[in-house]
Amino acid sequence: EVQLVESGGGLVQPGGSLRLSCAASGFTFSDHYMDWVRQAPGKGLEWVGRTRNKANSDTTEYAASVKGRFFISRDDSKDSLFLHMNSLKTEDTAVYYCARVVSGYILGTAYYYYMDVWGKGTTVTVS
Amino acid sequence: QSVVTQPPSVSGTPGQRVTISCSGSTSNVDPNTVAWYQQLPGTAPKLLIHRNDQRPSGVPERFSGSKSGTSASLAISGLQSEDEADYYCAAWDDSLIGYVFGTGTKVTVL
Question: Would an 8 Å CB–CB cutoff place A91 in contact with chain B?
């Protein structure tokens, strides 16, 4: 069964740090780009960032709201994804989801990008 | 504040057809493809539609997607009580170099 399981959430003070983990199983983790998405209480979904796969040098991109504070890494030998969160703010309070990505180009121009597998999420409270 | 907008809410009676609009721009919805996600209360999002109009296996045929220019739509035909959820459109944004979710639409079955 294809599965993603997040862990590491908790209560942290403003300015603190936290590392979230996402354990993948049931698919070839190293083949896929992986994303983090968050949802603040009562709010919509917000993309946090992504890591490409090894074939694309594991490069990363981040949302402007977290750039310079959050970092994504992966350990393909352990089928694991990580979100390193620093300088946390109260507005970072949210449920954090990891998600498997499918992406590519149609006819060389239109970029398709979507998340086909999601974890159940882990809650981070900054207070 | 998202650059992709959706109506906050849509409602319908069982069996009715409802549509949810998704308005983006020339850096996200057009030229890239749109995905739709369904989030049932208290659960993680689930992929509903990808590449504008493609349903993953297991998604009922009553869900359909379309796109024209900078706008996309999700239609639910034969609305059922279990369709009561939040729905989000999303696309890659070439200017932001990031993935953008729509503002989300709550579907209520009356």
Answer: no
> What tokens were used for A24?
């993948």
Q: How far apart, in whole angstroms, are the C-alpha atoms of residue A119 and residue A98?
A: 6
By C-alpha distance, which of B80, B98, B81 is closest to B90? B98
Burial of A76 (0-12, 13-18, 19+ CB in 10 A): middle
What's the token pair of residue B62? 């009553």
Measured distance CA(B83)–CA(B63) in Å, rounded: 10
The CA distance from A36 to A99, in Å, is 6
pLDDT at B1 over 70: no
pLDDT in tens, A26-46: 999 999 999 999 999 999 999
CB-closest option in B33, B56, B88 to A116: B56
